[in-house]
Amino acid sequence: MSIQKKEFKKITTHVLLEMKQKGEKISMLTAYDFSMAKLVDQAGIDVILVGDSASNVMAGHETTLPITLDQMIYHASSVVRGIDRALVVVDLPFGSYQGNSKEALASTIRIMKESGAHAVKMEGGEEIIESIKRILTAGVPVMGHLGLTPQSIYKFGTYAVRATEEEEAEKLIHDSKLLEAAGCFALVLEKIPSKLAKRVAENLTIPVIGIGAGPDVDGQVLVLHDMLGINTEFKPRFLRKYADLHGIITGAVQHYVSDVKNRDFPNEKEQY
Ligand code: KIV
Asked: What is the mean pLDDT of residues 230-254?
């Protein structure tokens, strides 16, 4: 029996590095379930992030803090079953890695074993370096995340742009270098000035992927539900809406309700 040769190249951390070297931009979106992951993968996305934003968009929490490791594993395993090509990165949730590198490694091993994902993402710089290094000893690729790190929302007090002042900008640059030196394969920069993001991307050899960080980085990431226009209340300046699924889904459901009420559905062909 011959194995059919796939037309596409599976995305690995090495492919992402090559993309940066060639100046080819990296596309990344979140997904949290099988059906959406399958659609997004087949549409040609490079990286799928099983973000802890699932806490907001899937579970309706106000912050990303409540989502648990078990819940992240459930979302990640559903996503992995839907993909053929994309690299799947999973957020380590709040409380599963901060302050204890052994726990960080144990949480990561559970994610990798139980979901089949390819890498993990962690928020923070110098304060989590020990955890990052320990995870890397197990051969698991780690993506960093600096700037607006939503797991620290109660420290920041607001979702406003980060690192606008020199001191915070300098710490971010310092942290980005530490993350690269520790061995992170990529870095997400969230909601920081474009000029700062450009400087970080130029200084690092690993890919830098931005969300609200301007155009001069190596790739872009958005939350799927935001860019598809499912969520109408969230309208930050950096968000471009590529569809109005809120309108489409509402219209379809209203149509269905009306067809049921009017005895128009099911018709003769739609029954046994
Ligand atoms: O959880 C998430 O969706 C994220 C992105 C916003 C980068 O971390």
From this structure: 96
Residue ranges matching CATH 3.20.20.60 in the chain: 13-241
Which of 28, 29, 30 is the best mutation target for the ligand 1 pocket, counting ligand atoms within 8 Å of the beta carbon and taking the most?
30
Look at the chain and count its residues: 272
Relative to the CA of 91, which ligand 1 atom is closest? Answer: 1
CA angle, corner 147, sides to 142 and 151, nearest 5?
A: 70
Q: Taking a C-beta distance cutoff of 8 angstroms, is the pair 135, 104 a contact?
A: yes
Give CA–CA dist 104/69, Å, rounded.
11
As for ligand 1, residues whose beta carbon falls within 6 Å of it are: 30, 49, 51-53, 91, 188, 190, 211, 221, 223
Is the pTM for the entire model greater than 0.70? yes
CATH for 13-241?
Answer: 3.20.20.60
Residue with CA closest to ligand 1 atom 2? 51
What pLDDT does residue 4 have?
Answer: 54
pLDDT tens readout for residues 34-44: 999 999 999 99
Determine the distance separating the centroid of ligand 1 and the alpha carbon of 38, expressed in angstroms: 19
Q: Which residues are catalytic, by number? A: 190
Structure tokens belonging to residue 156 = 């920041």
Q: How far is CA 201 from CA 58, 76, 183, in A?
A: 31, 28, 16
